[in-house]
Amino acid sequence: QLQLVESGGGLVQPGESLRLSCAASGFSTNNSVIGWFRQAPGKEREWVSCIATDYEGSYYSTFYQDSVKGRFTVSRDGAKNTVNLQMNSLKPEDTADYLCAAVVDDYTDYCYMLNEHEYKHWGRGTQVTVSS
Questions:
Q1: Interior CA angle at 18 toward 13 and 75, to 5°?
Q2: CB atoms within 10 A of CB 124
Q3: How far apart are CA 46 and CA 66, in angstroms?
């Protein structure tokens, strides 16, 4: 059964860091796209970042929303079949529920162009709160 499980959320102060993980099971993160999304209370869900990995797992591309560029880094651990989101210099406006989602058995050079509805598999999310 295909499953995505996020972890690593928590309460931090502005300027601090968190590392989120998205553990995938039931499929390989090779030849797939993993996207990170977030949803703050009262706001619509928004795309944050994505990583697309080729079939061999030897090539990947990453993209970021403008507001997180230079602060967030997405990476993949093929051995653990996990995608991580390193979040540095966190701001109060980063507070949200963070979810990972997958497009399986597909690769694209431009994962930022994927519509949210093209992600067919979703985790349940992990809460990130940035507050002093």
A1: 155
A2: 11
A3: 12
Name the 3-class secondary structure at 68.
helix
Distance (Å, rounded) from C-alpha 95 to C-alpha 121? 23
Q: Residue 128: beta bridge partners?
A: 10, 96
pLDDT for residue 107: 83
Nearest Cα neighbor of 52 from 4, 112, 7 is 112
Q: Are strands 46-53 and 32-39 parallel, antiparallel or unpaired?
A: antiparallel
φ and ψ of 67, to 5 deg: -70, -15
Count of other CB atoms within 10 angstroms of residue 77:
12
pLDDT tens column, 26-70: 999 999 999 999 999 999 999 999 999 998 888 899 999 999 999
- Name the residue type at position 68: V
Q: What is the mean pLDDT of the chain?
A: 95
Amino acid identity for residue 43 in this structure:
K
